Amino acid sequence: MVYEKSKKSPAMKTKENQSWIIKILQAISTVVFALFLIFAPAGTWRWLEAWIFILFYAVVVTVAIIWMKKRAPDLLKERQAKKKDAKTWDKIFMRTYSLMLVFLLIIPGWDAVRYGWSHVPLVLKVTAFIGYIPAMVFALWALLENTFASDVVRIQKDRGHTVCTTGPYRYVRHPMYVGVILFMLCFPISLGSYFGLIPACIIILLFILRTVFEDKTLLKELPGYQAYATKVRYRLLPGIW
Questions:
Q1: Sign of dihedral through CA atoms 15, 20, 88, 236?
Q2: Angle at the Cα of 170 (from 165 to 171), degrees rounded to 5?
């Protein structure tokens, strides 16, 4: 498909540049805040596992953003924009998820470094780091295939929302959540924390509940989803659920 470049006025270009500067500053502030939540409880910057995770995550996210900017700009715009038509129950989910995410970032520093409550064997840490690979691959594969993979639950009538049936969507109806769930299981273990599994498991339960509510929404409001759900029976785990 060939995209024709439209001419933009200087005012439009200035506005776009200002918008990107704001987004970059927001991204930087988010990263700084996340680093504070991870390292402040640990009481030290000398935490190899945490730096390995941060480097890996930063590379994956950067690659994903660059790809979306070049190949799927509408998807990137959708995921970055504020959505007023998100479902009320999903807004509650996002607030609860954000709170649990803070605990997920804080607890491993206390547990694995400052107080040493947990003693996770090296082999489990390595296994968890390896587990990031299929988790990220599955989530990114879903993004590659589904141009309507918004970060909130909404029917994107403004974008001509249709059902995605390719890639991982041939096997389960919510493949991105599969990647997220695996990621959540790996995160605290990779940092050497068993207690970090508490907020991680709460987040996993939240995503399972979100899957149920999102499925009901799509069955009711998205044309073609009923037929797709009949063909692809399982939401997250083939043969199980």
A1: positive
A2: 145
pLDDT, tens only, 137-180: 999 999 889 988 888 888 888 888 899 999 999 999 999 999 99
Closest-CA residue to 234 (of 181, 159, 177)? 177
Provide the token pair at 143: 């993004």
164 Cβ neighbours under 8 A, 6+ residues apart: 145, 146, 147, 148, 149
* Averaged pLDDT in 10-residue chunks for the chain of 241 residues: 48 55 69 90 95 91 85 80 81 93 96 95 97 93 88 85 93 94 96 97 96 94 94 92 88
pTM of the model: 0.86
Tokens of 63: 């690659």
**Rama region for 160: left / alpha / beta (φ>0; ψ in -120 to 50; rest):** left
Q: Measuring CA to CA, which residue among 110, 173, 186, 126 is closest to residue 146? A: 173
C-alpha span between 31 and 76 (Å, rounded): 19
Strand, helix or coil for residue 234: coil
CA distance 128 to 191: 9
What is the number of other CB atoms lying within 10 angstroms of the CB of residue 194? 17
Whole-angstrom Cα distance, residue 138 to residue 3? 29
Domains and their CATH numbers in the chain: 13-231 (1.20.120.1630)
